[in-house]
Amino acid sequence: MKKAGVTMILDNVRIYQPYEGYHPEVIHHIEIHDGSIAGIHKGRYSSSNDQVIDGNGKTIMAGFNDSHMHLLRFGLLKKELDLTQVTSWKEMKEEVEKHYPEIEEEEWIFGKGFNDGQFTDIDHLLTAEDLDEINVNKYMYFMHQDGHECVISKKLLNKLEEEELFHKEPEDFKERDQDGGLTGRFKDTAVHYINHHLWERSLEEATEALETAMPYLLQYGVTSIHTDDRSFIGSYKSLWKAYTEAEKKGNLPIQAHLHHYIFDRQDLQSFIDSFDKRTGDGTDRVKVGAIKIFLDGTQRLHTAAMRQPYPGQPDSIGNLIYTQEQLNDMVALASQNGMQVAMHALGDRAVQSALTALDQEEANTKVLRHRIIHAQTMGEDLLKRTSNVGAYIETQPSFLMGEWSEKDQWVPESLLPYCDAFKKMQDYNIPITLSSDAPIGSLDPITSVFAAVNRTNTDHEPEGGWMPQERLSIDQSFYGFGVTPAELEFQEKRKGKIQEGYVADFVFLNTHPETIKNHELLNLMVEETWIQGKRVFSRE
User: At the topology level of CATH, where does 79-198 sit?
Assistant: First the structure.
């Protein structure tokens, strides 16, 4: 029986698919019908069809699925004040004045991406006192490059101190001076609190930021994402509306899974009571993701929860945000209401706490496919437990490129082989994804693959790779950007592969990954991106 609709033929292409054994020199033609792959055949297409696209012998593979990022924040960074390139306090002030030429007319002054640890003209990190040099009467908020730290003005600090709930945030995340006063500098969940409670974007601003971000995703072949954005728009309902509005306008070509970041059990219960959709529910392009829970901070700030003291700060083991009982309760409540859970657990003590919560019968982990984000420090016991519990782990290999030289200040020497232990995770049959954490990490999936395969920076340092025994293969790395994220969506039978019956989300590459040397992977490039059988980006 003849299929209804028009079938397009993608002719003269090579196929790369991890573990599938497509030979780099073998040519195929692919039938695409109603946005899905209807057939894959060896050789050139020889029949008559007006809808034939000549692939000119180029390589196609499934589009990239970035399982951990912050798309709204990325889009806002592109349209708001970007401070990622400033190298001094003087330069930062100049950029603020350039972006806000009429400062007296502004109520808020906002910027993101600064790194004052590298400033050359001051001998301390910025505080509210320093921000007086810009203006003494404005709400000012500047987010650090890694998203885990911020500095705010005195006026905003006064407003923050009036917030009753803020005083419940862990003291470890609030910087104080020698007299016990707040300096205006905050870390981790205190940063999220300020974002969420004091400075949220309008629906119009959020939708515009999402639309601004789209071309960047498409040029890198990213066709699906999992994103945590709630802190930048206030409520999950507003976030949902921003994404679905962009979809209705035809400006959301990708599929987005929206996580809901919660602060406590009450926040979770409110979501359950007020929002009737659950993980996987939604529209064609916008779906409910997971409940996001932060368990600890970051190693750079010594706030990641470790089981042993930091070598660079021996009096600290970091901070767990929740008691085990609190975490167990939230994970159980989310699970019993059909919500997947994604937990930020960077230090090994936080990973241990996450696994204890996921090991509850009420968590139903192997069915709901809960995940641990980062897990940058593990241990043999934690690897075994993760495998037994059935949790997924989301990794961000591009972080290694800038952090490898600092690791010995963050973990004891005996634990270094368990830092970003990607190969050990694979050996224990722990399903892992590769992801960007953009805009903190590189949005380009090829950069993450390069880092996972080589474990060096772009200058190929250190020689031979840092902890080279933890390198992944090319197949393992690309699999973590395709099939494994689809499993987290319960869509592994319809996306993440070039296969009959799967959605036609794919990219054209400038060369076949199996024909390129590991250290030359950064030469790999996306030339075209297709979503549901339609070309949405071309480099030409």
Answer: Diaminopimelate Epimerase; Chain A, domain 1 (3.10.310)
